[in-house]
Automatic annotation (TrEMBL):
It is found in: Cell membrane; Membrane. This is Sec-independent protein translocase protein TatB. PANTHER family: SEC-INDEPENDENT PROTEIN TRANSLOCASE PROTEIN TATA, CHLOROPLASTIC. GO terms for cellular component: TAT protein transport complex. Keywords: Cell membrane, Membrane, Protein transport, Translocation, Transmembrane, Transmembrane helix, Transport. Pfam families: TatA_B_E. It comes from Stenotrophomonas geniculata N1.
Length: 152
């Protein structure tokens, strides 16, 4: 800022000696030194305060970054937990379905008259009334009773 060299300082000292005289010059030098010291201390104080504020802002920024990171992590964990919960429910449902299939006999194993629903692939058959069974068992060697209905 100020470009003052040794020669300029020497000129200022000689002028001060001539103007102030040898008696007042030491008091003036002490007074000038005091003001220079106060100015430096004030400048250092302002500088330290500015540095503290910058550090505080930096710490606040870092805290916000950490909070944002924590929120992102929390959201990811919640999403992962929800996904795992859904997958567990799906697996539970599949397990329940498989358990029911294992417990219930397969429709192919059941006789046709016990099946709950007809096969969609099988052609529709005419419903035939079951033959009435006689109250008495047929005798051995007797021909079976004949039905008047026509069999397909």
């Amino acid at each position: 800022m100020f470009d003052i060299g040794f020669s300029e300082l020497l000129v200022i000292a000689v002028v001060a000696l001539v103007v102030l005289g040898p008696e007042r010059l030491p008091k003036a030098a002490r007074f000038a030194g005091l003001w220079v010291r106060r100015a430096r201390n004030q400048w250092d104080s302002v500088k330290q305060e500015l540095e503290r504020e910058l550090q505080a802002e930096d710490i606040k920024r870092q805290m916000q970054d950490v909070r944002q990171g924590m929120q992102d992590t929390e959201n990811q964990l919640r999403a992962s937990g929800e996904a795992i919960r859904r997958e567990a429910q799906e697996a539970q449902q599949q397990g329940d379905t498989l358990a029911q299939e294992v417990r219930a006999p397969a429709p192919a194993d059941l006789p046709p008259h016990m099946s709950a629903a007809p096969d969609a692939d099988a052609p529709a058959q005419e419903s035939v009334a079951p033959e009435p069974t006689p109250a008495t068992p047929p005798e051995a060697g007797a021909p079976p009773p004949q039905s008047t209905e026509r069999q397909p």
